[in-house]
Specification:
- Strand 10 and strand 11 form a beta hairpin.
- The chain has 3 domains: 66 residues, Orthogonal Bundle (Arc Repressor Mutant, subunit A); 189 residues, Rossmann fold, CATH 3.40.50.150; 114 residues.
- Strands 3-2-1-4-7-9-8-10-11 form a 9-stranded mixed sheet, with helices on both faces.
- The chain starts with 7 loop residues before the first helix and ends with a strand.
- It is an alpha/beta fold and 393 residues long.
- It is globular, with a radius of gyration of 25 Å.
Length: 393
Amino acid sequence: MDLTILNPEIQEFINDNIDKRISTLALQKNPFPDMEWIAILNQIEAKAKAKDKLPFWFSTKKIIYPSKISIEQTSSEKTALHKASIVSGESLIDLTGGFGVDDYYFSRKVKTVVHCEINCELSNVVKHNFEQLDAKNIICYPGDSTSTLATLNQKWDWIYIDPSRRNDAKGKVFLLKDCLPNVPENLDYYFKNTNAILIKTAPLLDISAGLLELKHVKTIHIIALDNEVKELLWEIHSNYSGEVHIKTINILKEKTESFDFILNDQANSPTYGLPQKYLYEPNSAVMKSGGFDEVGLSYNLDKLHKHSHLYTSTKLISFSGRVFEIQNCIPYNKVEMKAFLLNKKANITTRNFPDTVENIRKKWKIKEGGSIYCFFTTDINNNKIVLICTKTK
């Protein structure tokens, strides 16, 4: 780790050029001959990425950044803060430490946190950064985490793992066994060292596939940020054999939306109905959960169709997702489309509909944007319909 990058003049240069294009800066002459130009450019690019994602790191002096890719792959502060609400106790070991954002927030809830990172250079950078962030209860161990786990030889309140896909797994269906570390293979060994494990996976992982690979799953947390699913968290406890709880959370700028249910627990079937006054579209975390029947039952809403995943009611309710007021419900045919939408401006969504948004826009010359929201979908009678709506929130 080259601390030359912390030279006050270099740091000032980095901060002054945060908003500049790297491609333009790269053509300039390096004003600091004692430091590699590529290293300075990397700090500028990585710090720029951290501005919105890691505001605490961004605003803290003397932080050293890894590659831009490492910043892109790390948890955001908002998702890390929520993750920390799951754990507690005296000790936690992170077997895949990375840039250490999760561990910083874990350290607010757990007395001692151990950060393991196989990349020794990155481990040294993270250790330096924790000192700048005044995180005094985090210990950094460079090297293989399995060896560290064996060497420390103690019982942990939590083990945290963020497995990464192996390079040779590209193009394959995403399975945990294709990641490093191989959690399904090592699960019994991990349980010799803890009774509680938290696993972070990419949203690409299919929930049913994950449940086939893992055992003792108590809760699956689905975390979305600004309606984009960022990660799945698998909370597993040794000897647990009960129901699997699904917890969804969508962290928005003004509020947080949550919807929870027990997997495969519905005793009743949802009700179905034709469009009424209001239309409800679940947020991305709820959509990822697959709890479509549970949404209808929990909120007492009618589903438009088994496969449409849109809901309706006569009265306005608070909901985990977007809510619209239906202005018109028209059959999808030439006469109605010409009368209501030809050459108009509208936001288009398709749900359980045979045509794409792009083709619909092209066919009916509908421009993007405006305050009208159109849902092209299928109703309970298998009719193709268009719901012309305005947003309520």
